[in-house]
Queue: 2 jobs
Job 1
Amino acid sequence: MLVKKKRPTKKMPTIAQLRMAFEKANKLSVILEIALHDMQKAELSPNHKICMSTWYRVMHDGICRVCLAGSVIAARYSRLVKCDRLGCIYPDLLRGIDECEDKLYALNELRMGCVSSALRAINKRWLGPHELDRPISDYNEHCPGYWWGDMGSLLGDLRAAGL
């Protein structure tokens, strides 16, 4: 008699586990890696549109506009807090959740290549510029490859610097 072996199934992490991973992250490289992963999911989702000038906003058409940090809000925190009267969630609404607000502001700086400002957002004692500061291409939904390339390069440099 032939016995069919069961394939091990990969269990998807819960929203709480995803939230915890972001809250425990203490390096810019880890924070950025998590955000880039969430943004890739948002890019592929029919419910989201990438708009770097908007944190997290549900529009009248039901589509949620998100930036890099907003994609983290969408993936990990949107069920935890209520939108304001305009359908928005800002980092301030997440105040008190394990430095989450500071990490979201750091991501906003990283998407523009401001490593020194990102370090200041999560480490208030950081002063001065950083040698990893650089220009980052604008995100263009029709041709996002340049932005993704710049962000991948930044992530690699942050890892190499131990940040």
Note: The chain has one domain: 15-135.
Job 2
Amino acid sequence: MPFSEPTRYYIEQVREVLIDFPVDLEIELEIGVPLDAKTVEDLRLLSTWPHGLGLMCNRAGVLMQVRIERALL
């Protein structure tokens, strides 16, 4: 199985997780994360999910947060 197939599947999972988050919600990036995204919409538009990055989402009442961090490997 080519490497690109699991990567495409993974970005689809990210899009599913973000489905309930507003497109204009600003995301938080851990310092040093090499990602050029500012909003949830930017994340949804990615064609692949970068290797080694983790997605953390928090929905506490009306407070919604999305943070991208380096994943612990």
Note: The beta strands are 28-29, 53-60, 63-70.
